[in-house]
Design goal:
Elements: E1 17-21, E2 25-30, E3 35-40, H1 41-48, H2 56-67, H3 73-85, H4 104-111, E4 122-126, H5 130-134, E5 154-155, E6 158-159
């Protein structure tokens, strides 16, 4: 059976997500996958209106009205594809068999470079687990950047001590008992 734009009524995932709405984007943290997603205005409008009752053509009209920019079903399909890849939609139908998936480049050609801001964009990053974010490498441990070291200093692939630390590994200053310098 062929799925048409009118039959597809996507529903956004809502469980296991922490959502923060900002002025022109939406930040979503996926608790199940430890991923953070940033939706630009276009992707956010599509996502928040995926209520299971709006068709792709309805979403295109809503997008055009809310953004004030040209939007057609191809823009909505592109947004749905990105949202689905980010697993923010449980299961989304693809465009009908006779119509292949559309790329951002093709959408930009159709709506013009002046409307690049209308291109939906979902950016995702993997968030570290709490223990990974709070752990640092002690002095002498292998490192590649200072941010990994408890001291904040990575020297030649090894975490170095902080201010006042002994280069030999101890934390106490060496006691020499006298002045260092030339003899008189």
């Amino acid at each position: 059976m062929e799925t048409t734009a009118e039959q597809t009524k996507p529903r956004a995932r809502s469980e296991g997500l922490v959502v923060q709405v900002l002025s022109d984007e939406v930040l979503i943290y996926d608790l199940e996958r430890d991923k953070a997603h940033c939706l630009n205005q276009t992707a956010a409008i599509v996502w928040k209106n995926c209520d299971g009752s709006s068709s792709v053509s309805d979403l295109a009209q809503i997008l055009s009205k809310e953004s004030g920019l040209p939007a057609d079903e191809d823009v909505v399909w592109l947004a749905l594809d990105q949202l689905s890849r980010a697993r923010l939609l449980p299961n989304t139908s693809k465009p009908s068999e006779g119509k292949k998936s559309i790329t951002r480049r093709e959408v930009m050609r159709r709506i013009g470079l002046s409307a690049v801001v209308a291109i939906p964009l979902v950016t995702s990053i993997v968030a570290p687990l709490t223990i990974q974010a709070a752990t640092c490498i002690p002095n002498g441990g292998g490192c590649s950047t200072g941010q990994q070291c408890c001291s904040g200093i990575c020297n030649l692939g090894s975490c170095a001590g902080g201010p006042g630390a002994d280069p030999g590994g101890g934390d106490k200053p060496k006691s020499g008992g006298g002045r260092v310098g030339r003899r008189q």
